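Continuing from the previous page...

OK, I double-checked the sequence for ATP synthase subunit b against my notes and this is the correct one:
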Amino acid sequence: MLNALVTLAAEEAEHNPLLPAMYDIVWSAVCFVIILLVAWKVALPNVAKMLDERSAAIEGNIAKADEAQKQAEAALEEYTRQLAEARAEAGQIRESAREDGKKIIAEAKETATVEAARITAAAQAQIEAERQSTLVALRSEVGTLAIDLAGSVVGETLSDDARATAVVDRFLADLEASEKAAK
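Thanks. Re-ran it with the corrected sequence; updated structure tokens here:
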């Protein structure tokens, strides 16, 4: 039935209802051309300019990122170089400290050896002085005892100091000679 209505309407009207009238097509075409020209002359350059600016900004940012990456790599290389130098310097300082420590220890040992030798020499000198002092005191006592004993044995007093000293010295010399012979 729809088909019958369309056919009936077509017979009554002179033109096809699906096609617009000619003046509508012309005015629509003129409006389309005006809109197309305005878009071509105004909008398209603005869009192209905006896209170019965006493209330049993106390329600039990429260049900045590349530059920043190069700087970061250079900084990393510098840091690595400085770290290697610091490690080498620390090694040299440690080695120098070890050598200084060895020198200090050697100097301390040498000083201690010299001081021990000095103390030993002083002690030996003191011992020798005491020995001599003791020997003199002993000679004096032994001499006195020998004179007293000799006086008791002989029955006379040995009052002459020169004679008494000679007797004591001879007695002690004989005593020392007998000690050396015994050794």
